[in-house]
Amino acid sequence: MLNVVIFGAPGSGKGTQSERIVAKYGLNHISTGDVLRAEIKNGTELGKTAKGYIDQGQLIPDELMIDILASVFDSFGESKGVIFDGFPRTIAQAEALKKMLSERGQEVSVMLDLDVPEDELMTRLIKRGQDSGRADDNEETIKKRLQVYHSQTAPLIDWYKNEKKYRHIKGLGTMEGIFADICDAIESV
Ligand code: AP5
Ligand code: MG
């Protein structure tokens, strides 16, 4: 199985590139952000809890997120592999993912780090906030999301380097050009 972690700051293009990876390689896609937004839309208890964190630009607690991840993963059954989009976001989540996969005889194949300068991230997310109105795409919340990324999520870069799974992807440029670099990285593993 091909298990890909697509990694990057808010607005780096994880969701955009995941769609292309799914179409080309036939993987199942887990976006933890999409899962949480669906729960909010459906008004579930989990959605109510998640909304409090998302609106503040903060992460949902690890234990909760890890349980959700495992249940979505197991719902796929037979699969060519999975693309993990927005998970892991903390060292504890990375360790839990490693453990969950190894209990199922699997591992992460590659971690792709979409690297995009901060001013471009801000421009993309402000624009998306104006066009489609994701509740957390306003300047104040975007700033908090970026702070959380730097303090809690960016340490995973060294963690995956240490695991020998890390691939740097230049995330600035056309969506097609970035996707071509992603395909090269995937096909090299
Ligand atoms: P999540 O939904 O994962 O949001 P995010 O990480 O902030 O990232 P985005 O979805 O905003 O950006 P993206 O990288 O997918 O980029 P996209 O392709 O959309 O998480 C939301 C919240 O949920 C978190 O803050 C947290 O509260 C909670 N959460 C989620 N997972 C969690 C976890 N594991 N643990 C705890 N809490 C969790 O692109 C962005 C925009 O740029 C789009 O408009 C797109 O069209 C455009 N774009 C893309 N590529 C390009 C390009 N090459 N050039 C120009 N524009 C581009
Ligand atoms: Mg996304």
Automatic annotation (TrEMBL):
GO terms under biological process: AMP salvage
Pathway: Purine metabolism; AMP biosynthesis via salvage pathway; AMP from ADP: step 1/1
Keyword Coiled coil among record annotations: no
GO CC annotation, single: cytoplasm
Reactions catalysed, as given in the entry: AMP + ATP = 2 ADP
A GO term, aspect molecular function: ATP binding
Domain of life: Bacteria
Annotated compartments: Cytoplasm
Chief location of this protein within or outside the cell: cytoplasm
NMP, as annotated region: 31-60
Residues the record lists as binding AMP: 32, 37, 58-60, 86-89, 93, 134, 145
Annotated positions binding ATP: 11-16, 128, 173
EC number in record: 2.7.4.3
UniProt xrefs under SUPFAM superfamilies: P-loop containing nucleoside triphosphate hydrolases (SSF52540)
The entry's keywords: ATP-binding, Cytoplasm, Kinase, Nucleotide biosynthesis, Nucleotide-binding, Transferase
Complex formation: Monomer.
Family matches, as HAMAP family: Adenylate_kinase_Adk (MF_00235)
Family: Belongs to the adenylate kinase family.
Comment field on protein domains: Consists of three domains, a large central CORE domain and two small peripheral domains, NMPbind and LID, which undergo movements during catalysis. The LID domain closes over the site of phosphoryl transfer upon ATP binding. Assembling and dissambling the active center during each catalytic cycle provides an effective means to prevent ATP hydrolysis.
NCBIfam families listed in its UniProt record: PRK00279.1-3, PRK14527.1, PRK14531.1, PRK14532.1
Described function: Catalyzes the reversible transfer of the terminal phosphate group between ATP and AMP. Plays an important role in cellular energy homeostasis and in adenine nucleotide metabolism.
Protein name, UniProt field: Adenylate kinase
Name of the gene this protein is made from: adk
